[in-house]
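assembly run, all chains below
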Amino acid sequence: MIEIPEHLRGALENHFLGRESSEEKTLLETWRSLHPEYDEEVTRLMQLWSDSGDALAQPEFDTSEAWREMESRLGKKRTGLWVRLPLAGRIAIAATMIGALVMVGGRIFSDRTSGDTATGWRTVVAVGGNEKITLPDGSTVSLRNGATLQYPYTFEGSERKVMLAGEAFFDIRPEKNHPFRIGTVRSITEVLGTSFLVNASSLSDTIIVTTGRVLFADKSQPDRNCILSEKQEAILSEKGLEKKPVTSSNYLSWETGRLVFRQTPLDQVAADLSAHYGVFVQLADTLAPKAGMYPINSEFTSQSLEQALDEIRVLTGLQYKKKAATFIIYQPN
Amino acid sequence: MATKRDITDLIDENGIQSKFKLVFEELYAPLCQYAFTFVKDKDTCEDIVQDIFTRIWEKNRTVLGAYGNGIRYYLFTAVRNNCITYLRREKRTPVYTLTDNMNENSSHQWMEIAPETDLRTDYKARLAELIEQLPPKCKEVFLLARMGQLSGQEVATALGISAKTVENQLWKAMKVLRLLAKSSNMY
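ok done. output:
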């Protein structure tokens, strides 16, 4: 067997890696041309390098499945942005008189309450729990932990306007000729005399109307708007404005502390658990098409996520596992 | 010659995202396979590799703009370090580390290849087996160089040893594997 001379080793290593310099290339080719056996030995070593790469390429790993996990881990949403959401929320408005819930995900201020009487605006940040706020007109707001609300010390002028980042539930007093408007970075919601939920995350705003009617508009393109009534939901994102019937009955679970499932399909359960506990709960690919075969009837109040998942396991005979930051529900073999 | 990528190419968010995805798609499986040489549990390997990518995305995106082979060097080194940390935390014995106090010349059992075995049928399996049986230091150098496709100097820096040692160990491994190929009449 031919020994490769020491002074050629470095050149040959780089040749294996496909990044030898032109000097190294000349050096190697000169040596190879000295004798057919030299030339053959280099060819064989190249083959060996390549074969050992194949031999080491095991076990198999599923890159596309892993990429899907990465996307949910990094909070990639349909808009094509990767942002880790601080477990965004929703806004729900519920009121017998008039209620509106607005939720906007976004930045979190470090101070709990601050105000500037000169400008007349007050900023409240819910830190360490949800926060109940009574506005100057008597309307009340439940601010979800982490959300921020800015509102004036007194409502002056023709409108009542507040700014929201994060999730909140508004219960708004009706005042004719004095519309109530909730602004987020992206949208403006006007209460027309009813109750609704708005959820603005850093990627999209969602509004859910529980009773009454609401006008929901894109801030930068006000002619992009829609009127929503009871049990309707609209989502505003980079993709545009989408209107549809309300799918979840648990959008207020953060406020009530209760998750209720009544013949709820498993994929909806997973979505509600994700929103409520601030984690990613998913169905395995093979299970997802059969989600409707597992209607869940259950109620969770103070349970931990694991306790909730354990109960689902008992109810359905399915299993779950934690993979990275995601809980995956799957069908055991 | 591969073209050098400049970090300014990646200034816009979309550029960073596609680079991130590209690197992930190219290197995820090789990195997991490299991790598997330390930690013999597939799920743990995937967790270790995904943690590293998550960390890059959240804290260290500039590494995506590294010149040439920089990102490979970074990732393979990170996988190695995190595997060793994992094994230490789990109080399991690493499969191999450079701190192993072993006599380089004592272990030649990997040379004893039963000649009666029909090696041609499963040559690559034998190759994998033989790599597994290389002396620790030799194996560590070979795996990092081969799987990471890193240069001798990069391997030396990653392992904190001299470039000369890397070269010696690498060629020792090549020689052993070459003997196997020969005895298998492969070429």
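The radius of gyration of chain A is 29 Å.

The first strand of chain A starts at residue 92 and ends at 93.

not gonna interpret more than that til we talk
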